[in-house]
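go over both lines:
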Amino acid sequence: MSRLRTAQQLTGQAGEEQALEYLLSQGFRLVERNFHCRGGEIDLIVQKDGMLLFVEVRKRASGQFGGAAASVIPAKQARLKKAAQFYLQRYADPPPCRFDVIAIDGNQLNWITNAIEE
């Protein structure tokens, strides 16, 4: 049984697809998508040259209300960190990692590296 998705969910899904295509074109390999745990969710986990990236994707139709990047508020950052900590428990020796944000406002994609302090 499939559930109906809201317009906002469809926009988010389209943004994740766009972000993933972009990262793959930059040589990254998808490790996991929509990783869920009790503490939160990570949209994309990708890897390249031994570096693991936890990527939050935000898509907005326009830059109104501060735009996509501004929507990654401290509470969201805390949930991302908690989810990443949970994810990294699967490694005996965790690889180097960082938090990036891909903000999409309209048709403009902005890749913000090291967007969240560890």
Observations:
- Residues 7-25 form the longest helix (19 residues).
- The chain has one domain: 7-112.
- Helices lie at 7-25, 74-88.
